């Protein structure tokens, strides 16, 4: 059960990042109430990657790297939980 909860939380956060990225493609998308809410939750994590990954022209690849890193963190958390709690 704890594995499902952790998996759900990681999935929700990944969708939040993806939604935040999609909102940036629309004019005035980042000023909507949903985008402002997502920015509060997602921007601190994304800023870590934006600080050392420069944009490639008009394309910012740091969110892609952030999503990949989040998957690695998720796998690490599952590994640690498996060590602590036992097998899946």
From TrEMBL:
Pfam families: CCB3_YggT. The chain crosses the membrane at residues 7-26, 64-85. InterPro entries: CCB3/YggT (IPR003425). Coiled coil: none annotated. It comes from the Bacteria. One of its GO terms (cellular component) is membrane. Keywords: Membrane, Transmembrane, Transmembrane helix. Belongs to the YggT family. This is YggT family protein. It comes from Kroppenstedtia eburnea.
